[in-house]
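Whether sequence alone determines local backbone shape is best considered at the level of individual chains. The sequence in question and its structure tokens are set out directly beneath this paragraph.

***
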Amino acid sequence: MDIRPIRTEADHDAAIAEIERLWGADLGTDDGDKLDILATLVEKYENEHWPIDTSRVDPIDMLNYLTEEGGHTQAELAELLGSRSRASEILNRRRALTVEMIFKISEAWKVPAELLIRPYRLDAA
């Protein structure tokens, strides 16, 4: 296994290509271990070079992004929150997220809770 630190854009591009090749490798195999290590290195590089300014993230925009682009669905959100109507109220800014909701979403979807705890605009019902 030839794994090196990611120091340049070229290193990053090569690591991403290798991750794509290894995607779906079984845990505990050499390829699975390599995938895990490369993903960790890429995450570290990206966090250092392209940090997310969490002070500008709107929690509802984040949820919409996760359901439209992030591989999750509004039905999954409804399951996490207990009902379809509750998920719809959250996404339509008629109900605020609670700490319990934020915890469930963060744990299930592997989203940092800090992206969901910011104040945001609610619309009148």
